[in-house]
Design goal:
Layout: H1 13-27, H2 39-46, H3 50-62, E1 66-69, E2 73-76, E3 99-100, H4 111-123, H5 137-152, E4 163-166, H6 168-180, E5 186-190, H7 195-203, E6 207-211, E7 213-214, E8 217-218, H8 220-229, E9 232-237, H9 251-264, E10 267-271, H10 285-288, E11 293-298, E12 310-313, H11 316-330, H12 335-347, H13 349-371, E13 377-378, E14 385-389, H14 396-405, E15 408-409, E16 411-412, E17 426-430, H15 437-455
Parallel strand pairs: 3-15, 5-6, 5-9, 9-10, 10-11
Antiparallel strand pairs: 1-2, 4-12, 7-8, 11-12, 13-14, 14-17, 16-17
Helix pairs in contact: 1-3, 2-3, 3-4, 5-12, 6-7, 6-11, 8-9, 13-15
This protein binds pyridoxal-5'-phosphate (PLP).
């Protein structure tokens, strides 16, 4: 009987067994078509639990080393393993070329292996083909229930009827704007905002009016005053780990914003894609003004951006308009992707993956604190990104160009500014996107060098 050697390996046991299957299939010790040992027997000879071997076989199936045949067993797959990354089954990003601090995406981590397991499990169900069709009423209900459960974990009490699924948060924000505005309307935002919202507003014929904020936190008095000046109807804001400043609005502020929204009849679009990151976070704005808030989140930061699943929660009348907007723009999110997200929420994988992101983000923030002098660094210790205020003699555009020349991509504040004249001299750096911590360290060191060069008296403004 084939028996893998595990003594030289590290990582979880199931992964060690799955790695050994892949290697034996590649070097011919397990020729194509070989039946793997029955799971119970292998568990016995290796001295591991049956569950571990079951998980290993599912992992090896997901990675393309083997295929399962119902009632017959698991066989080494023809055609060999699927093309793999450096660590088979894991998502990785380039380990050469520019260090990319411009993309605010999660760290590639264990999601690839989870996907392998889930696809293998799905492949064995008779429901598989149903994901190729339009979603059924049963699937809609099941996904809404998973979505409501997920929102419950960030402190938002959501009913299934209030949930709307989208193709990610980007689509969610667009659907929210489509559902609540008409060309010519005013959209109120923080002075610095998530850049694509400016472009969305332009496409929809909206006028974006920035509301004074305090370091990224929307100011209730300024919001109230803005409503005296312009007929604002809808507010888009990022109360938790604001892009680009990482500011988080406290509970009093949230309550005050809700009061102004109520007084002025405003609809709030709350973008909470980073809401899962802080270990202790204020309740979403949607808890303070549930009757007028469209709460937007997605699994892109917490699980994986390629799943393209977003969750909106809104009061019933707005939820109806949101469903129309989703139908017009995409019919529905892909049922298979919605199913994967729902399974991960139900079986605890989503908690594991978001926990990984939380821990990795905190670690990378500690690297930033070590590398960058504190007078330039502004960052919540739980955020994916950080905000660097530049010395006076470094203009943000020049800094970005010089960083690029030295192999690091960053985004200057102007990309986020609604009114270019209010753009501070600062840049955003995203620490999570790169796979390897060592490249993050290298990028941070490069930026620290640049900051110090200017600090030493040279003028970098041309
Ligand atoms: C603040 C913010 N909102 C929304 C989105 C869109 O997220 P998704 O990938 O789910 O469309 C992003 C993604 O970069 C983001 O950073």
């Amino acid at each position: 009987m084939w028996r893998p050697t595990l003594s030289q390996r590290s990582g979880p046991k199931f992964r060690q067994i799955s790695d050994a299957i892949g290697e034996s299939a590649a070097d011919g010790r397990l020729p194509i078509g070989t039946r793997l040992p029955p799971q119970r027997e292998l568990a016995y000879v290796l001295g591991v639990s049956l569950n571990t071997v079951t998980r290993a076989y599912a992992d090896a199936t997901g990675r393309g080393f083997v295929r399962g045949e119902v009632g017959r067993g698991t066989f080494v797959r023809e055609g060999g393993p699927l093309p793999t990354a450096a660590h088979p089954g894991e998502l990785t990003r380039p380990s050469t070329g520019p260090i990319d601090f411009s993309m605010n995406l999660p760290t590639p981590g264990p999601a690839g292996a989870a996907l392998g397991r889930t696809l293998a499990a799905l492949a064995g169900t008779c429901a598989l083909a149903s994901f190729l069709d339009f979603e059924s009423a049963g699937q809609v209900d099941r996904n809404a229930a998973a979505a409501a459960a997920w929102l419950g974990r960030v402190g938002l009490d959501a009913r299934c009827d209030d949930m709307v699924l989208t193709v990610g948060a980007q689509h969610g924000i667009m659907a929210a704007l489509m559902a609540t505005t008409r060309p010519g309307d005013v959209l109120l935002t923080e002075e610095l905002t998530y850049a694509p919202v400016k472009a969305m507003a332009r496409h929809l014929g909206l006028r974006v009016v920035p509301v004074a904020d305090e370091g990224g936190v929307l100011c209730p008095d300024a919001l109230d005053a803005a409503c005296d000046r312009v007929a604002g109807k809808v507010v888009y804001c990022l109360p938790t780990l604001h892009t680009p400043t990482t500011a988080t609005m406290d509970a009093d502020r949230r309550s005050a914003i809700a009061a102004v929204a109520r007084k002025r009849g405003l609809i709030l679009i709350e973008d909470d894609v980073f809401g899962f990151l802080p270990p202790e976070r204020p309740r979403p704005l949607a808890c303070f003004a549930p009757e007028r808030t469209i709460y937007v989140t997605s699994v892109s930061k917490s699980l994986a951006p390629g799943l393209r699943i977003g969750y909106l929660r809104a009061p019933a009348d707005i939820a109806r308009a949101l469903r129309t907007a989703v139908g017009l723009s995409s019919w529905m999110p892909p049922p298979l992707m919605a199913e994967i997200s729902s399974r991960w929420i139900e079986d605890g994988t989503a908690d594991e993956l978001s926990g990984f992101q939380r821990a990795e983000a905190a670690f990378r923030q500690s690297m930033a604190r070590e590398a960058i002098p504190s007078r330039y660094l502004r960052a919540d210790p739980h955020a994916f990104h950080a905000w660097l205020t530049l010395p006076e003699n470094w203009h943000a555009d020049m800094f970005r160009m010089e960083a690029r020349n030295r192999g690091v991509e960053v985004v200057p504040a102007a990309a986020f500014a609604v009114d270019p004249s209010l753009s501070p001299n600062a840049i955003r750096i995203c620490l999570s996107h790169e796979s390897a911590r060592q490249r993050v360290r290298q990028g941070l060191d490069t930026l620290a060098e640049l900051l110090l060069e200017a600090g030493e008296g040279g003028s970098m403004i041309v």
